[in-house]
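Hey all, quick one. A colleague (J.T.) asked me to put the 4-methylsulfanyl-2-ureido-butyric acid job into the tracker so the inputs and the structure tokens live in one place instead of scattered across chat threads. No bug as far as I know, just bookkeeping. Sequence used:
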Amino acid sequence: MSRNLVIAAAQLGPIPRAESRSSVVIRMMQLMEKAASRGAELVVFPELALTTFFPRWYLQDQKDIDAFFETQMPSEETQPLFEAAIRLGLSFSFGYAEKTQDAKGETRRFNTSVLVGPSGEVLLKYRKIHLPGHSDHEIWRPFQHLEKRYFEVGDLGFPVAEALGGRIGMCICNDRRWPETFRILGLQRAELVLLGYNTPVHYPPAPDHDHLQDFHNHLSMQAGAYQNGAWVVGVAKAGHEEGCDLIGGSCIIAPTGEIAAKCVTLGDEVIVVECDLDRCREIQDNIFNFAAHRQPDQYGLLVEKA
Ligand code: CDT
């Protein structure tokens, strides 16, 4: 199997609260078609791709909250995505709010992403671990960020799958800011990290950093790529969504940390790069050869509670 994988980052523009899943699925399918026409074998979509970014609202009625969650994947509304992938011979990844029941019959809610193979099979599932924001209604904020209220911390760890001719891991949005995320994927010799994000331009607790949002986005992902010798595909839900500006800047980053392609709009947009997974060796066998140079005996503090 070739070690070249043609990857598309499929950025989504704003999704209004009133937009139906079926309408979003049509937009996603259009992006898949465009990506396929440019030779893509894998299409990467954002975090919580099927709806508006609902944690910006304090919702009290569980019915209103659950309206944003999927209880089945695929469902009747998302099945066309899976069918399009099969028809086009594509793999794709996307994020969604997952409501499920555990073995004890307890309801659990996660911020999830899946990687789906070209036959429509789920190759990898990840549940977001670093949940940003707050749990209670903070009325001083111009908009809420209630991920800690609506989701629990993911319970699948940071899995890496042998898939599509390489080793693939995923993370979601805020996870990308934590070096531990990329390092734990790197320690499993991930060659490709897929991630989606919804990042507001305005950060209410530190508004002086608003002008740095794009910089911090790329800084984190480029560092994660370079320090672990992996390709990183970061995909935004971008633009002015329900009164909130979300950054764009979706990009495909080489294992050297260089941005190979970047979106230039805040709307639905596709970028495509042919990614040679063997280029990971340039970094993983040399400057960041973990076996040769890492000093884990000195890192005990990293896994102690703060
Ligand atoms: N979705 C998500 O994780 N967004 C956060 C926003 C900043 S924290 C409120 C991020 O890290 O981009």
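Adding what we noticed when we looked at it: The domain at 4-303 is CATH 3.60.110.10 (Nitrilase/N-carbamoyl-D-aminoacid amidohydrolase). The mean pLDDT is 98.
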